[in-house]
Structure formats: structure tokens, C-alpha cells
Fold:
Amino acid sequence: MTSVPKPLKFLRAHYPGMKEFFDDMMDSEHKKAFSEVLSVLGMTMAGCDVCPALPFCLTVSCNRLTPTLLCSSDSRESLKYKLSGVKGGLDTWGGEYVKNLAGEIGQEWAQRKTAEKDTADLKALVDEIVPFNVKNGSEPEACDLLMEVDLLPMVILVGPHVSNCLGGFESAKAAPQTSQGRFWTTL
Structure:
């Protein structure tokens, strides 16, 4: 929550209503801009419709108070709203937002590949995230994302910072046999 602009923190309690309002909006530039705000809020909410002000509850077990997470982490709402929003603009929301999107892209990519669905919209977002990461000194995160989405040949975009990604040689040992050949060829 520290990376979220302060005014947006107060909108968490209104997130479910904002999602309903978004669904009722007609397609327009305003809807795309509003989608950006929902995407950032989605990063902090992670599927919390139970109690938006408190994403956990305290339970008692063995005379101890234990925090229990109420949120599901597989909703990928941040990605959903980013894909329906304005293209670009990653600089506006910062590095934590981009890291969150990268994680959600990895999950969504795996799910779509398993279901043999189109991933062109995710690839377009990866094409925005990788240069953002390189520009902001996060080359390893760029390489990690490229490995997750099977686009490792794009590591050339990372340019002179490939040496930061050479830790990928170690990752190649963990890669499935089918990917290892492509991985070594690329590096």
C-alpha cells in the first residue's frame, strides 16, 4: 500500500461500487481512464470483496490470534482493467504497479497457453513493461518476465545489460527440457 498514491488509498472502501459503475459505463475515453484507476486499486485489493477496508480477519486457534487472509490472489483484476484501459502510462503508477502487472501477466499467460487462447494483448503489454524495467534499472525483472512468457529472444532489447541477466544460465537448469535449447541459443 505504500506505493499507492494517498488519495487512492481512501477509495479502497468504494472499490466494489466503482467496479459496478465501470461495468455500467458506455465505452469512451473516460471509461479507459477510469480503468487505469481501477487497475491500480485492483493491485491493492486482489479480489477483496468481503471487507475492502480490512483484507484479513483475526481468528482464534489454540488461544492465539491468527490473521487469516480473506482475499483470493488469483483474480488478476489489475491486469483485467489495465488491458481495457489506456495503452502506455506505466511511468505514472511506478515500479510496484509494474511488478504486480508482470506477476499477473505470468499467471494469465500460463492459463491462456494451457487453454490454447490468444496472448497478443499480453504480449503488447510485455512490450511496454520490458523497456520500462530496463529504463528503471530492473533488467533482471525484465528477463524474468520474458522467461515466464516464452519470449526470451526479446532479451536483446535489454541491450548492454544482458550481463545482469546471465543469472539466467542458472535458470536454464530449472527450465523444462523443451525450453532449454531456446534458452541457451538466446543467451
Remarks:
- Strands lie at 56-61, 64-69.
- The CA atoms of residues 18 and 38 lie 8 Å apart.
